[in-house]
Amino acid sequence: MPITRREALPAIGLLLAAPLACRPGREPLDPLAGTIADFQAGRVRGDWTSLEVTQAAIARGRSLATLRAVDLWCDTAPDEARASDERLAAGSLRGPLDGVPVFAKSIHDIAGLPTTASSAEWARLFPEAVPRDAVEVARMRAAGAVVLGKTAADDFAYRGNGTSSLTGQVLNPHDPMGVKTPGGSSAGTAVAVACGIAFAGLGTDDGGSNRIPAQFTGVVGMKPTFGLVPRTGVIPTWPYLDTHGPLARTVADAAILLAAIAGPDPDDALALTGPYDPAPLLALPGDALRGARLGLVEAHVPRDRMPAETLAMVERAVADLRAAGATVVPFETPVDRHNVQDLFAEAAAAAGDVEPSARPPAATANALLRYFERHEGDARAMVARGLAPYQAFYDVLPTDSEDLLALAAEPYEKSPAGQAFARARAVVVARLADAMAAAGLDAMIYPTMPFPAPRAVDDWPDIRTPLGYGNWTGLPEVSVPAGLGADGMPSCNLSFVGPWLADARVLALAHGYERASNRFAAPSVG
User: Fold this and answer.
1) Mapping DSSP to helix (H, G, I), strand (E, B) and coil, where does residue 221 land?
2) 414 assigned to active site
3) 105 catalytic per annotation
4) Is the peptide bond before 84 cis (omega within 30 degrees of 0)?
5) Active-site residue 185, yes or no?
6) Which of 1, 73, 337, 391 could pair covalently with 149 via S-S, beta carbons 3.0-4.6 A apart?
7) Tens-place pLDDT, residues 481-504
8) Looking at domain 5-286+475-482, which of 3.40.50.300, 3.90.1300.10, 3.40.50.150, 3.30.450.20 is its CATH number?
9) Closest Cα partner for 238 from 368, 114, 385, 108?
10) CA dihedral 391, 264, 205, 292 (to 10 degrees)
11) What is the C-alpha separation between 360 and 381, in angstroms, rounded?
12) Buried b vs exposed e over 96-128: b needs ≥16 C-beta within 10 Å?
């Protein structure tokens, strides 16, 4: 839930102190090249206004239109920036995100815009503007953020390549030849923040859709604890896997956005319940690595198959962690990417449950119906209208609309296969947490992916990644740049993974690594 004004004021004070502590040297001349803390400090000094920076962000985005990062622009952004400048003049900023230019994703509803899902056919079938913001967008606005618009993605957020049938292939800004994939599905958000079109933006992650573009474009991507960020008002994917979170150039900026969008929502039946305190996300300590104990998951480091340069960056990252005061030890986790699915099946069988499924068709069908029920008009008719292009990607669903609507009658939170999956997850995650505690670990670490970006037209290297493992366990994971290769392309990100709901702790550790290593490099086009 959004922070209160009482919580916001000390958070802003801490934020404005951050540039001197975290960014040695002079402030960047380009406010869009800095952090949210830099931006807010510059506003307080009178160096720039939110309106000026918002207009510069829009101009930059339009000048970089060939990257195809943006799906739709919001006409309301300048007015939101002016309102934030008025709040600053009155001494009533709502929090550290107030006045900050950000993006949503093409599957998020934004009132007054159509929701295209980055699909040419869906955009043709649903050209009308939607009446309400998605909950994440509403929370960003409540925190005072300036919503620039929506970013392009793979159709229906289904693939990991950044290929949209509506706007075309999103380009990787680090690649001067324009052939390497930026990753996906949250490609446009990653590209937009890498290039300084926005400070941060929303992404979604069912099988790596935040973390893949984070690594391939060299930015920070986070998959929070499953359920920490509600999905209401977003075209659904797999309800038992889908995890929404921030992308940004820095860990602290990702944490600021997460603080605004996290918290329970009764309309998302799988979201966490009970109050959530975002305050720790707004005060990440700079020395979190001192005395920390991190477990390097060797099962997620396929040394004999990784490119030498990527492996060297993992080794360098470990050295950076140790130099910053952390103890790094090998961790033979009882739950890894090789056995996680078998362990879920065993846990369900031991409980006498039905076979668990991470992707029960009925759950997705019901989520689609509930998505349209927030809109004006006949939700069942809308489901029927959009079924063909949606089902082409979510092909476990029936092709006949009546069959799908019959399937959608069961609430997704009551799906037997889905609930068996959730119960198995609790057992498996508890086993992993016990192993981490026995080893005295604060977090696990491993390369987000064991290879850099391939060409967009090529298949990925035949090397298993731990991406799906992250979604099955639902644990918080922060992916941080580990450096550029000799070709100038991002070669590796390091993932920090912690226990359930240890999001602030994981962010603090990632922040410490980022400060110690300073591996982010802006693309030359930005």
Assistant:
1) strand
2) no
3) yes
4) no
5) yes
6) 73
7) 999 999 999 999 999 999 999 999
8) 3.90.1300.10
9) 368
10) -160
11) 23
12) bbbbbbbbbbbbbbbbebbbbbbbbbbbebbee
